Amino acid sequence: MTQSTDHRSKAELRLERWNGYRPYEYLPDDAMTRFEFAPQIGREPGASIVWDPAVEERARAFEESHTIVSAHDHLSLRPADPSDFAAYRRQGREATPYEGIARSNVDVFFDGGPAAVSMIRSHAPFDWDDAVADLAMRQSDWAHQGLVRTVKTFGEATARTPDQVGVVLTLEAATPIGNDLDRLDVLYGMGLRLCGVVYSESNQLGSGLAESGDAGLTALGKRAVRRMNELGIMIDVSHSGDQTALDAVRYSSQPVSITHAGSRALWPTARMKPDDVIRAVAQSGGIIGVEAAPHTTVSPQHPRHSLDSVMDHIEYCIELVGIDHVAFGPDTNYGDHVAWHHTFAPLFGKDDGGAEPLPPHEEVPYVTGCENPTEATGNMIRWLFSKGYREDEIAKLAGGNMLRVAADVWR
Q: Which pTM value belongs to this model?
């Protein structure tokens, strides 16, 4: 096999492959509303971090030679004006941030999609028609460009295509299937390779983290777990209630993961996970991806949410279950994430209530160092280098662990 002699960086190759394509460019402008979007790069200059040149050099060399994986992000471009958010979602054409993706160090994104705000025809999230429409509509756009490629197999995830970025399609909850397990097969056929059991509010499979009680997996939920095992769909319990998460581990024959959360021992909210759930997931062979969505992975040491508080959660989880079971799951997007949360707060469920009062902390307009998917994973890698982590250790956190789980689960 002839090896390429093109020594340009991933970003240079990807920017050339992108070639300025804008979302749904194949349609005439009068076929849809063209919203003004937030800048994909440098939206909040204060969110950027300048690293020591030696750290920057090591990180860049590492990124060029390793497959970098985000266990959970939203490759979603958001309108610049928050008052446009609802109309944007109603249109049903989620815009892919091609420039931001091209400039990223990430080779494979597990994409959370519109998630709890998938409400094209319905007034509530996770409607079946809306979920199918979102999955198909984005792939229709991707078929007209060359930068983004869908990933459905382990071989596709690990293929060395430096001028492209792989995207794994996911749903944050199996709620759209209702009580019809065969819909999981339909979703698999549409490219879905990871699925949450439940979002914040309960569904027919189990209990969500917003509920005051948690009865665990239902009989249907146990069957759904078995079907996902049979299909080769990775199981995610990021938004599941604690008992439902433990039941998913118990009844799954494959590794179960938490793709985007943090430690409740550090920050006592329902959105974070207790030690016993993190341990159970690790014992199943899965991972916990530590997230950075605003006001989630805050820590007592760093009560103003920033890269440092995110990394506090990563180091806690490494100490708890070992470095083989921790990953990056930033849960970021391109736009004003805080305004997005405020606009759609009733749809996200209760993310800020726990058994104990929260320590003092402040609301931030953005998370320094983790403002979007382009910056978050890269800054996590640089932070680890700056703290003396070895390259082999960083390789596990930055992709190796998530790829191992994929190899175990995917058919």
A: 0.95
